[in-house]
Design a protein that fits this description.
The protein is mainly beta and 367 residues long. The chain is 11% helix and 38% strand. It contains three helices and 23 strands. The strands form six sheets. The chain has a five-stranded mixed β-sheet. Strands 1-23-22-21 form a four-stranded antiparallel β-sheet, with no helix packed on it. It is globular and about 55 Å long.
């Protein structure tokens, strides 16, 4: 009997340990069941952005400016608004045939594209040209940010945010590796070495850097190619970026774009929502008149989730009709609650004149 006692005690101890292990596993399983399982590409922010209204993509689109000439006859790439002084700033590749000060000859369009040489045109809200400037060695002009401000002499000035330090891409021409801030200056020619360019490296190691500004909510948003080769969209506080503090508030992983049928064409943001534009000109990819393939997608910076996506047939009668650029317009600063989600198109002048013109349409219903 004495020899069996240790064996019984050992057996009871083993059983107790097994029961305890089962109970612990049950508690852990119950705890895990309380943790929400998020769909792919969704996130929970520790410091979420204030929730704002979102634009209704089912709202009909209205024209803001139609078939306007820009400083150059090339395709509109992007645009932004100075809502305080009521100006539009458009971006184009310079194209061929123009010799600028300091250049020994007029580069071809292919060379300008490889270099990332841009023309910025300043328009009034009716689409009439006021002035222009050139930004060399920048990139493709996918997006531009506009920050109204006051110059050194106290005069109103628009600080522009663009890509800079462009690096040639073997297929698509130059793409920016940094972000630059500078005042729009009539007739100026700036390069990456211009001393009054303020440069920012928002995400170290990233390429294809572009920028958009949400002045209403004080955000800066950048789309870029990360070191893992994927495109991302990151939101920063504008005031902090200007101080050199590059703290990311939120990042959304962008889905891959099938470039055999469509192209990424621009983006903007309004509050906690990002708006993306994609599509191609009639006859390119899977774009066929009159419907085309221009889509607007909405993502929530607080969750990373796709909120809505819709086809727009705005400007369906335009010749060529390539979607280009997005921006937020607030037509009257005294009523800042009224905003427009604006998106652009490049079009031919006529069937015999393929010089490009710019049109901008908008949606203005928020909910």
């Amino acid at each position: 009997m004495k020899t069996l006692m240790p064996q019984l005690r050992e057996r009871k101890g083993t059983i107790f340990k097994r029961r305890l292990a089962v109970q612990i596993c049950a508690v852990l399983l119950a705890a895990l069941m309380l943790i929400p399982i998020l769909p792919p590409n969704q996130q929970v922010l520790a410091d979420p952005l204030p929730v704002t209204q979102v634009f209704d993509l089912s709202d009909s689109s209205d024209p803001s400016i139609l078939k306007k000439n820009l400083q150059r006859s090339t395709v509109l790439q992007s645009f932004g608004y100075d809502n305080v002084n009521q100006h539009i700033y458009t971006v184009q590749l310079i194209g061929g045939g123009l010799q600028l000060p300091g250049e020994s000859s007029a580069p071809t369009a292919a060379v300008r594209k490889t270099n990332g040489d841009l023309c910025i045109t300043k328009l009034d809200f009716a689409g009439n040209i006021i002035s222009y400037m050139y930004v060399l060695g920048a990139g493709h002009g996918v997006s531009i940010g506009v920050e109204p401000g006051i110059g050194q002499s106290g005069q109103p000035v628009a600080y522009l945010w663009t890509e800079t330090d462009g690096v040639p891409d073997s297929v698509n021409g130059a793409r920016g590796t940094k972000i630059a801030r500078f005042p729009f200056t009539d007739g100026a020619v700036v390069t990456p070495n211009t001393p009054w360019l303020q440069k920012h490296t928002l995400v170290p190691g990233s390429t294809n850097a572009t920028v958009s500004i949400d002045m209403k909510n004080g955000y800066l948003v950048s789309r870029y190619k990360a070191t893992d080769g994927n495109y991302k969209l990151s939101l920063f506080d504008l005031a902090q970026v200007k101080l050199g503090n590059y703290v990311v508030r939120s990042t959304i992983n962008m889905p891959a774009v099938d470039t055999t049928v469509t192209s990424f064409q621009g983006y903007t943001s309004y509050g906690n929502y990002a708006y993306l534009l994609e599509g191609t000109a009639y006859g390119n990819g899977n774009s066929v008149a009159p419907n085309g393939n221009t889509y607007i997608s909405i993502y929530d910076f607080n969750t990373g989730a796709l909120v809505n996506r819709g086809l727009t047939k705005a400007g369906y009668s335009l010749l060529y009709r390539e979607p280009e650029g997005m921006a937020i317009q607030i037509p009257n600063p005294s009523t800042p609650g009224y905003a427009r989600l604006s998106f652009g198109f490049a079009s031919y002048v006529s069937t015999t004149d393929t010089s490009k013109q710019a049109s901008i349409y908008y949606k203005d219903v928020l909910h």
